[in-house]
Amino acid sequence: MSVFKASVFFAALVSSVAVAAPPEVHVVIKDHRFTPSEVKVPAGQKIRLIVDNQDATPEEFESHELNREKVIAGKSKATIYIGPLEPGRYPFFGEFNEATAQGVVVAE
């Protein structure tokens, strides 16, 4: 393969990867609460949910409806992939602080 063909192939590969990246949604955990507590996402697309736990203690992001469960250490971030989702509401909560850590993903 010539250098030119290899360069064209690599550029096309990088371009297709960039187009295929799922949209990102950011949620913060602070004072054992999710902010925002309601996040809207497009229906029918895979989403990259970035959860930033700013508390000093760990929290567990959990959603039965999304079929996701992940422990996030204090002062750290986690990536959780969700979807593609049908239109609707998908509640989530922090299992370690369930009384205050509540949220919902709304797929529209």
From TrEMBL:
It comes from the Bacteria. It holds the Pfam family Cupredoxin_1. InterPro entries: Cupredoxin, EfeO_Cupredoxin. Keywords: Signal. Residues 7-107 form the EfeO-type cupredoxin-like domain. The keyword Cytoplasm does not apply. The keyword Metal-binding does not apply. Gene3D superfamilies: Cupredoxins - blue copper proteins. SUPFAM superfamilies: Cupredoxins. Residues 1-20 form the signal peptide. This is EfeO-type cupredoxin-like domain-containing protein.
